[in-house]
Amino acid sequence: MMEQRILVIDDEPDLLELIRFNLVQVGFSVETAETGAEGLRKARRSPPDLIVLDLMLPDLPGTEVCRLLRAEDRLIDTSILMLTAKSEEVDRVVGFELGADDYVTKPFSPRELVLRVKAILRRTGPTLDVQEVIEHGALKIDHERHRCWVENCPVSLTAKEFRLLSSLMTRPGRVMTRESLLGDVWGSDIAVTTRTIDTHLKRLREKLGSAGDLIETVRGVGYRFAE
Fold first, then answer.
1. Is the peptide bond before 107 cis (omega within 30 degrees of 0)?
2. Which end of the chain is more exposed for a tag (fewer CB within 10 A), N or C?
3. 48 assigned to some structural domain
4. 79 - beta bridge partners?
5. Which domain holds residue 102?
6. pLDDT tens sequence across 11-33
7. Residue 208 near residue 139 (C-beta atoms within 8 A)
8. Which of 159, 220, 224, 214 is nearest to 186 (CA)?
């Protein structure tokens, strides 16, 4: 199996080396960057499997780096783990809305970080076989290529948005609770609330335009994709 590649973006040299050392010890290939701009260059040059991203960088806010990463077609499926301070709750929320996968609050133990990285990569790794292309009216998704179209026009979705849409489309007519969607897309071991689902689905519906009506809200329960 090929080594999974991690890019760590943080401006504290000692912390950067601590993270790099612990990830290498468990078998990851690790590259580092001390600024947002350097991190973006390295990610664009060779997309990693996961990016550990500090939200407090000297040149660009981590949230802006996250937004720029998610705007790149080649990086849309790269997982992002945010490093935050306890006081940065608003930034964490913004990070999730932009497509980050998880966060770790400073100070943290290297073991916790490694476990979070492994958990994210397990969730975002190869999935069970599903129908490669699914179409419903004007909406079409391609699982193999992680692409979505509405009325034959491509729609740019984050990795989380695509997995949410896929989870619903592969179960037409079935009511999915917020908890089950959270487990499908984020995993059961992640510290985010079910409100995260509502935020992501609101953005997903907006991106899908008229096809967003295919995602129905079941009040007090969750969501359902139209049969």
1. yes
2. N
3. yes
4. 50
5. 5-123
6. 999 999 999 999 999 889 999 99
7. yes
8. 159
